[in-house]
Design a protein that fits this description.
Number of helices: 1
Mean pLDDT: 75
Strand order of the largest sheet: 3-5-7-9
Shape: globular
Number of strands: 11
Distance between the termini: 44 Å
Low-confidence stretches: 25-36, 144-154, 157-166
Length: 171
């Protein structure tokens, strides 16, 4: 089992590949003192392969500024602030995700494309705030999505610089 903050600030770590038998004790959640996250500030981390990951816990990849490629396509939950300031992440595909919590991708400056599958029921407030390059958000879900009662502007951001060019929700 991995403990929280097991790899926090491992600045030389470049790649993570997780098999199906890996368990993370206490997930990537913050500790009581709000300081420790599982891959917090792994500034050289570029690639994460975790195809059987059920949940990306809160702040799990916070500050992984070099993260470019991540495979978490079976994930059903993206925790709050899970990918904050992952500056180099340019796209994310979440075909099985049901919940994207508050600030999940906030500050991902190079995030251009987001693919959200038909399982999503909730997208937290400011989930994509300050994603200055966000151009396309694709939903394959035809039902209603709970936007925390604030509308899409609060999910993506409420300033004039953070609007997506295209928000596609099928008929």
């Amino acid at each position: 089992d991995w403990q929280r903050a097991s790899f926090g600030s491992c600045t030389a770590l470049k790649k993570v590949s997780m098999g199906k038998n890996i368990k993370v004790k206490n997930g990537g959640y913050q500790s009581v003192d709000n300081k420790w996250w599982i891959f917090y500030n792994c500034t050289s981390l570029q690639s994460v392969y975790a195809p059987l990951c059920n949940n990306v816990m809160a702040q799990a990849f916070y500050g992984c500024s070099s993260l470019v490629d991540i495979d978490v396509h079976t994930t059903s939950k993206i925790g709050s602030s899970a990918f904050v300031n992952c500056y180099n992440l340019s796209s994310i595909s979440l075909p099985n995700c049901t919940l994207i919590e508050t600030n999940a991708f906030s500050g991902c400056n190079n995030l251009e494309k987001v693919f959200i599958g038909n399982s999503v029921t909730t997208i937290g407030s400011r989930a994509f705030a300050d994603c200055k390059s966000l151009e396309n958000v694709y939903f394959s879900y035809t039902g209603l999505v709970d936007y925390m009662s604030t509308g899409i502007s609060y999910v993506i951001g409420d300033d004039d610089e953070t609007w997506a060019n295209e928000l596609l929700i099928p008929n």
